[in-house]
Design goal:
Layout lengths: L3 E4 L3 H8 L11 E4 L5 E2 L6 E2 L4 E7 L12 E6 L20 E7 L11 E4 L3 H8 L7 E6 L5 E7 L1
Antiparallel strand pairs: 1-10, 2-5, 3-4, 5-6, 7-8, 7-9, 9-10
Pfam families: DUF1203
Protein name: DUF1203 domain-containing protein
InterPro entries: DUF1203
């Protein structure tokens, strides 16, 4: 089985938004203050705590526009936070009962038959199995309720 890594947004991308760069709809990120705990930061892969500042913005986790390049809302700490780095362990913000795991090919298009709602405690096992398939280059972890992008999973 391949070793896996949960891949956060790049630090340079997060920092560019903090400095006012537009999101993937060419709009400025919205600056918000958390009124409760639980907004998932896509850079540190931890929750944004009540009272912390965060950005809400449109994000397309694909290198270019094409029919499978979904865009959706994400949250990122408005202040510096360390990029997540931990191989083979679930990020702290994956605490819902289940998530969608979906495979993508080198062409950044969905590999049909790879997507499934997966119990959180089975994500690592399912990711390792999916990444054994040569046609799958990487996976997305997405909300099972809203389809929001959370992070990528790749081979180490």
């Amino acid at each position: 089985m391949p070793q896996i890594r949960f891949k956060p947004l790049s630090t340079s991308k997060a920092q560019s938004w903090r400095e006012g760069a537009p999101d993937d709809y060419d709009l400025p990120p919205e600056l918000c203050h958390a009124v409760e705990d639980g907004y998932p930061c896509r850079h540190c892969l931890r929750f944004i705590n009540k009272g912390e500042r965060y950005l809400t913005l449109a994000y397309r986790p694909f290198p270019s526009l094409q029919p499978y390049a979904e865009t959706g809302p994400i949250f990122v700490h408005a202040d510096d936070c360390p990029a997540y780095h931990c191989e083979g362990r679930l990020p702290p913000f994956l605490s819902s009962p289940d998530y969608i795991l979906r495979g993508y090919g080198e062409d950044h298009r969905i590999v049909y038959g790879s997507g499934a709602v997966t119990p959180t405690d089975r994500i690592i096992e399912r990711a390792e199995r999916l990444l054994e398939r040569a046609e799958i280059a990487y996976l997305h972890v997405r909300s099972a309720r809203n389809n929001c992008f959370h992070c990528e999973i790749e081979r180490c």
